[in-house]
Design goal:
The protein is α/β, with parallel strands linked by helices and about 400 residues long. The protein is built from 15 helices and 15 strands. The chain folds into 3 domains: about 100 residues, Rossmann fold, CATH 3.40.50.11270; about 130 residues, Cobalt-precorrin-4 Transmethylase, domain 1 (3-Layer(aba) Sandwich); about 130 residues, Cobalt-precorrin-4 Transmethylase, domain 1, CATH 3.40.1010.
């Protein structure tokens, strides 16, 4: 994937942001914001740190992935190169509030979402627009290009791989069943590629319950209006389950849990085989593995860590981060798990503020931390969480036991 700024060739030249001098300056700035000496020491020493009976276990894979690092680097580079132009971004660059605050501090204004600071229609050809790691919808990108803006595209390569699959589905008159959250930026961007050619269709399913409902309809048909009402806002314009579930391909939001996406695939394939027979199903069903590698690595690392003895698990990251939420889900099935935005949520040894996926908000839990050592606490973080926030959490855990930062180095 190119790291160059894409622009209308007849209006302005392409600008390479990855020159050695720019990237050297960017790396220094990024490290000053997000690097962690303690986390690096933990990584090099096998992921375990014990002081005075308090043990922190850090997952083998955690935090920023390559795609996130690349997106942040390009945003910082744009701020250094385009010093005389207005800079904008199409929503959050990643799902981490602290990182997004740093992006705003660079003078980059948001064009999309509840925190937007400007309107797309007020852009000019002199403006620079950053596409975040999730990508953006086809119609939005087309309008930005039409206005003649400089475009810095930080879209993750794994996301673009999914786009390739759903576009191929559309070209072959295959409906894309997308496993993901219909409201998520990545899923909306992917869905827009499914209809880009003007003839494709998509349906978004989030849960296995959704999947079973679709599978039952594939096998037996049913009440079309009930179907459309259930999935309102999660299918393409003109979608007709009686027509557009004849040939389907399963795709996914890249940050879903692999096992769940594979189960969606298995159930849909079984329904197609029941309806069409195994031979015809080869023509009416397709599936490609498009789970993000970094997401899978972090899930696998946590799965391994959950086999070890721990008293509780802290999951650090943005509450709207899909891949981080799945790590919290995994932990909840095994031991007390607390999904926290940052170290400030560890209010005391008796009180923690954390996100509940069931209540969709922060809640408070008392007596969360064992009062007397020994205590073993697992820590992990999603692909959008910087190391400095992980360090802050580790320091806070030890501080609650009277152990100072200097004693950790």
């Amino acid at each position: 994937m190119s790291s160059e700024v894409t622009t209308p060739p007849e209006k302005k030249p392409r600008v390479n942001l990855r020159t050695p001098d720019v990237m050297t300056a960017v790396q220094a700035q990024v490290e000053s914001h997000y690097r962690s000496e303690i986390v690096e020491k933990l990584r090099l020493s096998g992921g375990t740190l014990t002081r005075q009976g308090v043990t922190i276990k850090l997952a083998k894979q955690f935090g920023f992935c390559y795609g996130v690092e690349r997106a942040i680097d390009l945003a910082y580079a744009a701020a250094k190169v385009f010093t005389s132009q207005r800079l904008f971004i199409l929503g959050e660059i990643i799902h981490n509030p602290e990182v997004n605050e740093q992006i705003r501090a660079l003078g980059i204004k948001n064009l999309i979402g509840k925190d937007k600071e400007a309107e797309v229609e007020n852009l000019t050809a002199d403006d620079v627009v950053i596409v975040p790691a999730f990508g953006t919808e086809v119609s939005t990108l087309a309008r930005i290009k039409e206005l003649g803006c400089q475009i810095v595209d930080t879209t993750c390569g794994d996301v673009m791989s999914v786009w390739k699959r759903v576009r191929q589905n559309a070209n072959d008159d295959v409906t894309s069943i997308i496993h993901g959250k219909a409201s998520h930026e990545e899923t909306k961007a992917t869905a827009s590629r499914a209809t880009q050619s003007g003839k494709g269709h998509y349906l978004v399913v989030l849960t296995l319950e959704d999947t079973d409902y679709v599978c039952n309809y594939i096998r037996k048909g049913g009440d079309k209006q009930e179907f459309l009402k259930r999935f309102e806002g999660a299918y393409s314009e003109g979608f007709d389950p009686d027509l557009h579930l004849r040939r389907v391909g399963v795709a996914n939001q890249t940050t879903m849990m692999r096992g769940e996406t594979e189960e969606v695939q298995r159930r849909v394939e079984a329904a197609i085989k029941d309806r069409d027979g195994a031979e015809r199903a080869r023509e009416s069903f397709r599936f490609f593995d498009t789970i993000c590698g970094a997401t899978q690595e972090r899930q696998d690392a946590l799965r391994d860590m959950l086999t070890e003895k721990m008293d509780l698990l802290l999951v650090v990251g943005g509450y709207n981060s899909s891949n981080t939420s799945h790590l919290a889900e995994m932990g909840e099935g095994k031991l007390p798990t607390y999904f926290i935005r940052n170290a400030s949520r560890l209010e005391s040894r008796d009180r923690i503020v954390h996100y509940s996926s069931h209540e969709k908000q922060e809640i408070t839990t008392d007596h969360w931390l064992p009062q007397q050592p020994p205590v073993v606490i697992g820590v992990t973080a999603g692909a959008s969480c910087p190391n400095n926030l992980i360090e802050d959490t580790i320091i806070r855990v030890f501080a609650l036991h009277g152990i100072h930062r200097d004693q950790l180095l």
